[in-house]
C-alpha cells in the first residue's frame, strides 16, 4: 500500500472547483446561489422539488468503537463512486461542531481520498449556521430571564427552568452554573448551565423543519420551563418565535460544497445523536434528491441510534424513505466487538471477528425488519488480512446479506466502484418496503418497549420512579403521540457501554424523560448523557496555527 | 418637509448594486473578492497599499444625549456627498453588535437617506466576525479552565482570573455567575461572568492589528489572570495564540458593503468606547485609504472619549492621522446640554442653545489643541428653527469655527453638498499638524492627568487606594509605557453623567485599572462601567419577524 499524506495535506492539494461551477453542473443558476467565498454557497429553499424517482441511500454503521469505522468516509466515497459509474449523486452530510475541533484532532469531513472540502472552513465557522443557532438559543434564554426579572407575568417557576444556554465549545466548567448573582439589578439567581450548541433543541428543529413557516411554528412550541401551576411555558408564550426565526433565516438554507472529486455535497445541520436525532437536515436531504438522482446521506453513531431515529423521527416527519441502507463495518471494529483489545488489532484474529460480527448481524436483522434492503460496506484498513476479509464475507453470505469492500479512504471513488455498482443494482432489483416498527398512536411505554426489544434485542424496559411520574405528566400535556428519541450509550446495543458485540438478556433502565415539543419528540434518557463535552489533557488547539497569508495549520 | 418612510422601508427599497460591481468600481478584481451573498464581501489584506495622498476625515460629536446626534448618519451622508461633488470617498464604519438589536429598536447603520445596506444583515449576523470573536474568547477561557482542571501547571490563582466569557447578547443574568459546579468532574468552582462580545479585548485587538502576525502576537500577550506569585499569566503561556488566530483568520478581513447611494463602505470591528477604544479597525481604515481618495470614519460616543482614543490609541498605534475632524452637533442635543428637558425640545429656545453650546466649544477647543482642523456639522432635525440655526452658526463664527448644516438624513448625499465642499476646501487649505497631548514615556498618572485636564477640562485626578496599588503593580509589570483607555460616562465631560454642558471645577476619581496588554492599553475605570447590557421591559425582539420568503420585519 502506498504512503498516504495527512487529511489536511490531501485536502489542501485538491483541485477544487469554484462553487459556481459545481452549482452550474447541478443546473443551479448563479442568481440562485448565495456564495460564501469561492468554494461554499447557500442554496434557496425553492430549489426543492418533488422528485419521487430520486433514490436515497442511508449510510449507518455497527456500534462505534475506538478503532474507528469511517462512516463519513464511506458516505463521501460512495457518492464519489456513484458519479464514477455514471450516476448523478449528491452527498448530504451533517455539519461538524467547532467545539470538539479545539479538543481532539480529527475532523468530521471524511478522510483520506474521500473528504468534503474546504475542510478547514467546514470544521471551523463554515457559513455560520451553528453560530446562528447559538444566538437564537441564548436570545430565548435572555428573553426568559428578562421576563422573570421584569415582573414574571407568566408566573414562571424559577426552580423549573428547562431552557438553559448553549455554546459551541467544549467547556466542562459551564455544565453547572449559578447565574443572576449580584443583587436585584443583575437578574434573578437561578441554576443554569450550558450545553454544546449542537445539543440545542433548535438544532434538532432546524433539521426537521421543511420551511421558514414550519421552523417558526416549531420554535414557538419549544418548552422553556414550567409555571407555578406546573404547566409548560413555551417560546410562543414569550412571543419571540418571530425574532428567533429571523435569526435563523439564513441558517435554514443548505450549504453547497464538494468532495475531493468534485461530487456535490450539501452539509447542513448536525444535531446530537443521543438527546436529538443525529441526522442532517430534512431540507438538505430533500434538496439533494431534487438536484441529483441518488442521495447518499448518513445518520449518527450506530444503526441502533442513528438509523432507528432516521427511520422513526426524520422519515416519519418528512416522508423521506431510504431505498437502501448501507451498514459500514470494519474488521478492526468487529474484532473489538469480539473482545480484542485496541492494541492487539493489528494481529489477525478470525475467531474474534466471527464472534464480534454478531453486532453487525443484529443491525442487519433490525434494518430488514423495517422492510429495508441492506448492503454491508467493509471499510478496508491497512492491517486487515485476506483471511479476515474472506471470513467476514462468508458470514454475511451465510446470512444472505450483500457485502462489498470499500477502499475509498485510500483510492477515493475508484475504491468504491464495486460498492456503488452493487448499491445501484440492489436499488433497482429490490424496492424498499419501509414500515416503522411503532405507530404514533402507541403509548410512550409501548414505543420505548418496541425499540428496546426489536432494535436493541433487549428483554424489556424498567422505568425509574421519576420517569414514571414524567410519563403521567407527559400524557397530561398531550405529548404521548410523539415519537421517541432514545439517549443511550452509542458503544453498546444495551445501555451498558462495556457490553460489546451482541448482548442478550438485558433490560434498559429509563431514568428521565425530556420534552422537545418543537422538534416533536420525547427524549428518553438511559444513564448519564453528556451534553457539554470537556477538553482533553492536551487540547488539539495547542497545535493549531495559521500562516501569515492565512493557511490553516495543525488542524488535523 | 415631506413624509419620510421608516429606515427599514428606505433600506429595502434602495436600488442596491451587486457587491461585485461596487468592488469593480474600486478597481478590485473578482478574484480578490470573497463574496458573502450578493451584497457583502470580505476583502483580502493585500489590498492595503501606502497612499499618503489619501485624506482621512474623522467624524465625532458632542457628548451624546437622549435626543440623538446622528453621528453615523452624518458619516454615511458625508461619504455620499463627497461622491456627489466628484470626490472618490469610502466610508469606514464600526460593525454593530447583535445583542442590543434584540433589546432596543434602532440599528447602527445610519438613518433616513444616509444608511449602509443591507442593514438587516449588517445588524444581525453580518459576515460572522463577532461570532468568531465570541468563539476565540470563549476558547481561551475553556483552555484556561481546562489547564486548571488538569493539574494547573502554571499555578494560576483561581481567585484572580481576569479572563471571563463573552456572548453577543444582552443578558444581565450572566454578569455574575459561579461556574465549575457539580463535583470534580465538572471543573473547578470559580467566579466568572459574561461581557457582551464587543467588550472583549479580542475585539479591540482585531481593530488595532495590522496583519495576521501582529494579531497573533497581540493575542499571545493577553493577560488571563495571575498566578500564586501574583505574576500575570498570558494566552501565550497557554499556547493557544495560534488557535485563536486561526479562528479569526477571516474575521480580520474588512467587509465591503455600500450606502443607499452606492458609496462603498467598509464595516469592520466595533469595540466598546469605554473599556476599549471605540473605533473601527485599523485594517479597514487603511484599506479605505488605499481604495479611495477620502476616508470618512467615526469614533464612539463624544469627542472626549471617541476622538481622544482615536488620536491617542488608534492613531498612535497605526500612524493613521486625521486631516479633518467633523464634530456633529444637533440643536436638540445642545439645548439638552443647556438644561432643556427631553419633552420640551420642540420648543424654540435660543438661550438654552447658547448655554449648551459650551459643550461643543470645549470639544472644538480640545481638537484644535491636537493640531487638527475642525468642521462642525449641524445635523438638522424637523423642529429646528431658523433662529436657532442662525444663533448656532453665529456662536461658531464668534469662535472662528467652520460650521455647515447637514440635511443628509432627509436628503441623502444631496443634503450634504455644503458640508462636503467645505470639508474638501478645509483639507486643501489647512494641513493637519497632529500632535498627541501626551507621550508614551509619561507616567500613567501623568497621562491620565493630561486627559482629565486638557480633554475633559477638569482640575485633576483622584486615585482610589485600590487604583494606587494597581499603579505600582502595573509599573512592576512594565505596562506604564502604554496609552490610556479611559472608561468614563459618555454623557458628560466629567465623570458625573448628570453634569451636562461644560462642567468646571471637577476632579475625576479613578476607581480601578485593568490591563489590555494585547490591545496595548491600560483601561482606567471611573465609576461603574456596564460591560453586559440588559434587555428593556419590552424587548424589540417581540416585534421582529420574517416573512415566509425570508424578508425581515420589525427590525427597526
From TrEMBL, chains A, B:
It comes from the Bacteria. Its EC number is 6.3.4.3. Keywords: ATP-binding, Ligase, Nucleotide-binding, One-carbon metabolism. SUPFAM superfamilies: P-loop containing nucleoside triphosphate hydrolases. One of its GO terms (molecular function) is formate-tetrahydrofolate ligase activity. It holds the Pfam family FTHFS. Transmembrane segments: none annotated. Pathway: One-carbon metabolism; tetrahydrofolate interconversion. InterPro entries: Formate_THF_ligase, Formate_THF_ligase_CS, P-loop_NTPase. The keyword Transmembrane does not apply. It catalyses: (6S)-5,6,7,8-tetrahydrofolate + formate + ATP = (6R)-10-formyltetrahydrofolate + ADP + phosphate. ATP binds at residues 65-72. NCBIfam families: PRK13505.1. Belongs to the formate--tetrahydrofolate ligase family. This is Formate--tetrahydrofolate ligase. It comes from Bacillus daqingensis.
Amino acid at each position: 500500500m502506498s504512503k498516504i499524506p495527512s487529511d489536511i495535506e490531501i485536502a489542501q492539494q485538491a483541485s477544487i472547483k469554484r462553487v459556481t461551477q459545481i452549482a452550474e453542473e447541478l443546473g443551479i443558476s448563479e442568481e440562485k446561489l448565495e456564495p460564501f467565498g469561492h468554494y461554499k454557497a447557500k442554496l434557496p429553499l425553492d430549489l426543492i422539488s418533488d422528485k419521487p424517482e430520486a433514490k436515497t441511500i442511508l449510510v449507518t454503521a455497527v456500534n462505534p468503537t475506538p478503532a474507528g469505522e469511517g462512516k463519513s468516509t464511506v458516505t463521501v466515497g460512495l457518492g464519489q463512486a456513484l458519479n464514477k459509474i455514471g450516476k448523478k449523486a449528491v452527498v448530504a452530510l451533517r455539519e461538524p461542531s467547532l467545539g470538539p475541533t479545539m479538543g481532539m484532532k480529527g475532523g468530521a469531513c471524511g478522510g483520506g481520498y474521500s473528504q468534503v472540502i474546504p475542510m478547514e472552513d467546514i470544521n471551523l465557522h463554515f457559513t455560520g449556521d451553528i453560530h446562528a443557532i447559538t444566538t437564537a438559543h441564548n436570545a430565548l434564554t435572555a428573553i426568559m430571564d428578562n421576563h422573570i426579572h421584569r415582573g414574571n407575568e407568566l408566573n414562571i417557576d424559577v426552580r423549573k427552568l428547562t431552557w438553559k444556554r448553549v455554546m459551541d465549545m467544549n467547556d466542562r466548567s459551564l455544565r453547572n452554573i449559578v447565574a443572576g448573582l449580584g443583587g436585584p439589578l443583575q437578574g434573578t439567581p437561578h441554576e443554569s448551565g450550558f450545553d454544546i450548541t449542537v445539543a440545542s433543541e433548535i438544532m434538532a428543529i432546524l433539521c426537521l423543519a421543511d420551511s421558514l413557516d414550519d421552523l417558526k411554528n416549531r420554535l414557538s412550541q419549544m418548552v422553556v420551563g414550567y409555571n407555578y401551576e406546573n404547566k409548560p411555558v413555551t417560546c410562543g408564550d414569550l412571543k419571540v418565535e418571530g425574532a428567533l426565526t429571523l435569526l435563523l433565516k439564513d441558517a435554514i438554507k443548505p450549504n453547497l460544497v464538494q468532495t475531493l472529486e468534485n461530487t456535490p455535497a450539501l452539509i447542513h445541520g448536525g444535531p446530537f445523536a443521543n438527546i436529538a436525532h443525529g441526522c442532517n437536515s430534512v431540507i438538505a436531504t430533500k434538496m439533494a434528491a431534487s438536484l441529483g438522482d441518488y442521495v447518499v446521506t448518513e445518520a449518527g453513531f450506530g444503526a441502533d441510534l442513528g438509523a432507528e431515529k432516521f427511520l422513526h423521527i426524520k422519515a416519519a416527519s418528512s416522508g423521506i424513505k431510504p431505498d437502501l441502507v448501507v451498514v459500514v463495518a470494519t474488521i478492526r471494529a468487529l474484532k473489538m466487538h469480539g473482545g480484542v483489545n485496541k492494541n492487539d488489532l493489528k494481529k489477525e484474529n478470525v475467531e474474534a471477528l466471527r464472534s464480534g460480527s454478531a453486532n453487525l448481524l443484529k443491525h442487519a436483522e433490525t434494518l430488514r425488519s423495517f422492510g429495508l434492503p441492506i448492503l454491508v460496506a467493509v471499510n478496508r484498513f491497512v492491517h486487515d488480512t485476506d483471511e479476515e476479509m474472506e471470513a467476514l464475507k462468508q458470514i454475511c453470505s451465510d446470512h444472505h446479506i450483500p457485502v462489498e469492500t470499500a477502499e475509498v479512504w485510500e483510492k477515493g471513488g475508484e475504491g468504491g466502484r464495486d460498492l456503488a455498482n452493487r448499491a445501484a443494482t440492489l436499488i433497482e432489483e429490490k424496492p424498499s418496503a419501509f414500515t416503522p416498527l411503532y405507530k404514533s398512536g402507541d403509548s410512550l411505554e409501548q414505543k420505548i418497549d418496541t425499540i428496546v426489544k426489536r432494535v436493541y434485542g433487549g428483554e424489556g424496559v424498567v422505568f425509574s420512579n421519576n420517569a414514571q411520574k414524567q410519563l403521567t405528566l407527559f400524557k397530561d400535556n398531550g405529548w404521548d403521540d410523539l415519537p421517541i428519541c432514545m439517549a443511550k450509550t452509542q458503544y453498546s446495543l444495551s445501555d451498558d457501554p462495556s457490553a460489546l458485540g451482541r448482548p442478550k438478556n438485558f433490560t434498559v433502565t429509563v431514568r428521565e424523560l425530556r420534552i422537545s415539543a418543537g422538534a416533536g419528540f420525547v427524549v428518553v434518557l438511559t444513564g448519564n448523557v453528556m451534553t457539554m463535552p470537556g477538553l482533553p489533557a492536551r487540547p488539539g488547539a495547542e497545535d493549531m496555527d495559521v500562516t501569515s497569508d492565512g493557511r490553516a495549520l495543525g488542524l488535523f
